[in-house]
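Researcher: Please translate sequence to structure tokens.
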Amino acid sequence: MNFKNFKDIPSIYTSTLFLKHADFNKVSFLIEEAIEKLLKKIQRHHDDWGALKDSTPPNVQLVHDHVLVHTELEVEWLRKLLAYVRK
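Model: Translation complete:
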């Protein structure tokens, strides 16, 4: 996988290891796109969850919380990577 086909952080490990061979401007753009994609996903979770939270069992809430926290962590990591690429 590469930055253009971002799915999740592990999918870009190899590309991250070989950043020195990449066009940093292009990589910055692709990382920004990945961050935007994840932020939209987080917003959808918040929007959808408001209507469902009270009617879902605790185990479903736990899964939802994990997905949300994991996605937020990926955004944080991508922001760190973006800062590194922009140096």
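Researcher: Any highlights?
Model: The longest helix spans residues 24-52.
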